[in-house]
Amino acid sequence: MLALRPFSPNDIPAVAGIVRESLRENYPATIYVDIHKWWRDGFIVAETEGRIIGFIAGVSNAPQNARILMLAVLEPYRKRGIGSTLMDTFLQQCALRAMRTVELEVRVSNGNAIQFYKRYGFQIAGTLSRFYTDGEDGYKMIRHL
């Protein structure tokens, strides 16, 4: 059974593990605390049987604009609607705050994520050269609400 709840600083080890495995990034623990401080309602974890299996972390980075910083689900749990549930919940939070646009970045090599975001109405707005720590390019994607 899937449960969504707000992120808590106690979740850092599990979230950081998902980031390493799914997003191929390694961030300091302070980044998760900062995101949590910036917009608590925009940092949501998904868990089953007490184990965190995915999350979405976003911030309000300008008036009426949200930015999804990270969205990831552990490999064994993908294609089960968990990412969609997280995205739906995040977009509801955006609507409650009268956001007009949501933006995000995605690796150019991550075809599954790009298609997922396109299904949600995101469009590629540009390429970000060497955006990721390993030098890979990213796409900037935007959705108008």
Keyword list:
alpha+beta, 32% helix, 7-stranded mixed β-sheet, 7 strands, globular, 145 residues, Aminopeptidase
Q: Strand tally, please?
A: 7
CATH topology: Aminopeptidase
Given helix and strand content, the structural type is alpha+beta
* Order of SSEs: EHHEEEHEHEE
Q: Could you say how many structural domains there are in total?
A: 1
Give the radius of gyration.
14 Å
Portion in beta strands: 35-45%
- Main beta sheet, described? 7 strands, mixed
Shape: globular
Main-sheet strand order equals 1-2-3-4-5-7-6
* N- to C-terminal distance: 30 Å
The CATH homologous superfamily: Gcn5-related N-acetyltransferase (GNAT)
CATH architecture descriptor name: 3-Layer(aba) Sandwich
Which CATH first-tier class would you pick? Answer: Alpha Beta
Low-confidence spans: pLDDT under 50, at least 5 residues?
none
Question: Summed up, what is this model?
Answer:
This protein is α+β, with helices and mostly antiparallel strands and 145 residues long.
If you had to describe this structure to a student in words, what would you say it looks like?
The chain is α+β, with helices and mostly antiparallel strands and 145 residues long. It has one domain: Gcn5-related N-acetyltransferase (GNAT) (Aminopeptidase, 3-Layer(aba) Sandwich), CATH 3.40.630. It contains four helices and seven strands, in the order βααβββαβαββ. The termini are far apart.
